[in-house]
Amino acid sequence: MMKTKKGWLITLLVLVAMILPGAAALGQDETVELRMAWWGSQTRHDQTIAVIELYKEQNPNVEIIYEFSNWDDHWTKLATQAAGGDLPDIIQHDYQRIQEWVTNDQLLPLDPFIESGVIDVSNIAEASLAGGRVNEQLYGFNLGNNSETFIIDVDLLEQAGIEIPPIDWTWDDFEEIALKIHEELGIYAIGGNLHYSEHWKGTYITCCDAYAYNAEGDGLGYTEEQDQYFVDYLNLIKDLIDAGAIPPIEETIARTGLSVEDAYIVTQQAAMEYGWSNMLVAVWNAAGEDRTFIEHSVPSMADGYPRNYIKPSMFWSISKNSDHPEEAAKFIDFFTNSVEANEIMMAERGVPISSAVREALLPQLNPAQQAMFDFLGAVEDYNSPIRPPDPVAHGDINSNVYLAQVVEPFLYGQMSAEEAVALLRQEAEILLAQ
Amino acid sequence: MTDSALRLPRRASRKRKEGRSRWGENNLAGYLFISPWLIAFFAFAFIPMVLSFALAFTDYHILRGWNFIGLDNFQRMFYNDVRYWRSVSATVKYVVFAVPLRLVFALGVAMLLNTNRRGVAFYRAAFYAPSVVGASVAVAVMWREVFNREGLVNAILGQFGQSSIWWLGHPDYAIWTLILLAAWQFGSPMLIFLAGLKQIPEQLYESASIDGANGIQKFVRITLPLLTPVIFFNLIMQLIAGFMTFTQAFIITNGSGRPLDTTLFYALYVYKRGFETYEMGYASAMAWVMLAVIALLTAIVFRTSSHWVYYETDEGI
Predict the structure, then answer these.
(1) What are A281-332's pLDDT values in tens digits?
(2) Which of B169, B277, B280 faces A249 most closely, judged by CB atoms?
(3) How many A/B residue pairs have CB atoms within 8 Å?
(4) Which of A38, B23, B85, B216 has CA 20 to 30 A from A73's CA?
């Protein structure tokens, strides 16, 4: 009997010892603890951490715990945290996904913090905030302006004897230029990725002032007769692949997941590269200072609307389960309006939305940042309006329909462009109607 | 020896008589001792399994919560999901080729290493090494480089005038890079084969030699039959591992299943549905179908085993 009692006592002691550290932590609650998560490159991680350190220096009562990762892991992690009701206070969010998160009631509206002046928007144009609104309420705070771009290697174009095209160039112009680059230099005109769903959406912006999805997000945003525009686009891509002017799909797919150092624009195996405008900084960095690049608009349809629009590169959002939403909002304000913080980041997340910050950065820009500012300035005068955030079903449609069943089978020669686009309509409508 | 063996049962029975009331307490202490394992088992294996079984009948979406939807997930899987069947066909193709290839390699190398030549210990370690790091990311990354445009394989083929191929981008070839990787990672079945080979009594070979049997005859008549229990074990283990392959495809083809879903392994597709489009209910349903299929196949292999697996009895030798 004695022995058993002793055994129990030891067990009890062990248990207490296990619980004690946790209990001790409950006692201290003077400092505010914020959790924060973002995705990005090593450069972004380093910069963001430096800004956090700066903020903690100026606000000793705030402790910021951060986690960062790449795009895929970021969303995987957030999903599990959302399921456990344990989201970080401040989340880096994205235009493609914010609708889904708001619809599922995971984010907090930011308007009260703007009204109360916690987030100062006096130097920010309304247009720069608009992208973060869902159902008239602000859920995402823009971290910088971005636009789709064709990065151009100026030297290679010159070697090929080609002038920089005008900002309102068309896909016909592009085809001509692409073939000439290939003919003159024997390299690819562009590194690839012209089959992404951005080009499906973009086709309907430029041809018809419409969008891939309708405003309600429960169906496609273009008519069956307008299917032809995307058929033409796909056929153009296929023709350029067959002519050797852009990489074949085998190559593009075998090369997915490579880092920027291996991009064809960096290795001079292509004269252009498609991407978002904040990408140039990394590209130029990898290519070296002796090269010269500019950012250019994405071609439009002949007699069509501008293809480019100004998009929030990414957002800060505050999660619904945040214990300190006001402190989180204060940090967002600092991130947006502090010149000191933005001098650390130098527009890595896109062109800053605060005019005061922009002016302060202007004299310090390196050539890549300068080119990005110039490009965004040009797009401000030549653009289409931004479309509502993608519907909830977009992620599913993009990976399980658009890429897997439509565009890749087409590019591998398994179906015609007409069949592909008809299948896209049929399958996407099913998912959108759900 | 005899003494204690005789006394033991008596002591045990006495204890049982007087200690019946303490039986529960004694067991409790035992459970406490294994509680770290028990807690982990319940928290990370048993409860999640029960939950996932329940979720298989819901439309659970991570951000949205769930509704009970009966068998809808299974209907969707079998009738309305093109990619599901692509993932099934990719997985079956992989298992059908990768598992036998790996076993053949493993047995072949095990036989080569079942000698007493100098340095054989080094070779055993060397051949086992790829499997130690087998499921690791590093090997997968290296494999991707081997099949890259500028990689080893194209460099070798280039010597024979073959122009470079985008192995990982070509729908006919991409899965073969994964099958070859599997074949190359033969280490653990090899070790088991090696242990099995060492169990085969040397006298059998000696007497076969005296009877004039050649190497092939010895292999077919002695080695293979006596090795069948080991082959059986390896087959089951590798079959299960094959169906659950994930890391290799996740790294080598970036978890995309590309090209054209030819490398969209079942486990990968489950992951994509669960974590990319957040459809945990659907993903759970898929996982349980896989469990059922693996269980069924294992049962079939077990059933057939009485026809081809030869167990030695003590009288056998």
Answers:
(1) 889 988 988 999 999 999 999 888 999 999 999 999 999 989 899 899 999 9
(2) B169
(3) 78
(4) B85
Model confidence at B122, pLDDT cuts 50, 70, 90, reads confident
Give the β-pairing of A148-153 and A270-276. antiparallel
Categorise residue A88: left if φ over 0, alpha if ψ from -120 to 50, beta otherwise.
Answer: beta
The helix (H) or strand (E) run that includes residue A275 is strand A270-276
Residue among A293, A257, A298, A256 nearest A276 (CA):
A298
Give kind and range of the element (H or E) at residue A279. none
Phi first, then psi, for residue A272 (nearest 5°) are -140, 165
| Interface residue A80 vs chain B (CB under 8 A) | yes
Side chain identity at B86, as an amino acid letter? R
Whether residue A253 and residue B82 make contact (CB cut-off 8 A), yes or no, is no
A115 forms beta bridges with none
Rounded to an integer, what distance in angstroms lies between the CA atom of residue A291 and that of residue A430? Answer: 48
The answer, as to whether pTM is greater than 0.90, is no
Question: How is residue A169 written in tokens?
Answer: 């160039």
Whole-number Cα distances in Å, B195 to A387, B114, B188, B229: 66, 9, 11, 12
Q: Is the pLDDT of residue A196 over 80?
A: yes
Tokens 């963001």 -> residue: A48
Length of chain A: 434
Quote the pLDDT of residue B50.
Answer: 93
> What SS3 class is residue A134?
strand
User: How confident is the model over B169-196, as pLDDT tens digits?
Assistant: 888 888 898 898 888 888 788 888 988 8
Q: Is the peptide bond before A166 cis (omega within 30 degrees of 0)?
A: no
Q: How far apart are CA A372 and CA A384, in angstroms?
A: 19
Q: What is the pLDDT of residue B12?
A: 47
pLDDT band at B20 (very low <50, low <70, confident <90, very high): low
A82 vs B: CB within 8 A:
yes
Tokens 């690791």 correspond to B136
ipTM: 0.79
Q: What is the pLDDT of residues B264-287, one digit of tens each?
A: 999 999 999 988 888 899 999 999
**Could you tell me which of B263, B87, B92, B89 has the C-alpha nearest to residue B178?**
B263
Closest CA to A418 of A406, A402, A432: A406
Burial class (CB in 10 A: 0-12, 13-18, 19+), B212: exposed
Per-residue pLDDT, A17: 55
A20 or B162, which is more confident? B162
Q: Cβ of B260 and A414 within 8 Å?
A: yes
Question: Are A7 and B29 in contact (CB < 8 Å)?
Answer: yes
**Cα–Cα distance measured from residue A343 to residue A358, given in angstroms and rounded to the nearest whole number:** 10
Chain B CB contacts of A399 under 8 Å are 272, 276-277
Closest by CA to A62, choosing from A315, A322, A328, is A328
User: Both tokens of residue B50?
Assistant: 């029960």
Higher pLDDT residue, B211 or A181? A181
Is it the case that residue B24 has pLDDT exceeding 70? no
Q: Which residues pair with A62 in a beta bridge?
A: A32
Closest CA to A274 of A373, A183, A202: A202
Stretch A142-149: mean pLDDT: 92
Read off the DSSP letter of residue A256: T
Q: Which tokens hold the place of A1?
A: 């009997």
Higher pLDDT, A407 or B13: A407
Distance from CA of B131 to the nearest CA of A (A): 25
CB contact under 8 A, B168 and A104: no
| Nearest-CA distance A149 → chain B (Å) | 25
By the CB < 8 Å criterion, does A83 face chain B?
yes
A32 has which bridge partners?
Answer: A62
